[in-house]
Amino acid sequence: MLEIERAEEGLAEVLVLRGRVDTGTAAALEKSCMTAIEAGTRRLLLDLGSVDFVSSAGLRVFLVVAKKLGGLGGRLALCCLTRPVSDVLALSGFDRILVTAPSRGEALARMA
Known about the structure:
Blueprint: E1 2-9, E2 12-21, H1 26-38, E3 43-54, H2 56-71, E4 75-79, H3 83-92, E5 99-101, H4 104-111
Parallel strand pairs: 2-3, 3-4, 4-5
Antiparallel strand pairs: 1-2
Helix pairs in contact: 1-2
């Protein structure tokens, strides 16, 4: 199960995620991200502070959204990573290709 809550902070849209990003929930996350992008969002921040698991399907969504935003001159950032999520990003090498930060404030600064 994945809950997605929208918020705005400065020029960025923030999606606060709660639960798991896996095969069963990745499509809903991708749809939420793409809806935001289609509405004009160019800075998207995913707050993963309440996410305890990310599968390869979730990693694919992060990559697809980052590429889409990059092609539009925008940025994706991930913040507040839990230990399990941080470990998955490190093992997959995604921590080297995605913008990550320990807090929302730092992530927003890196997206500026």
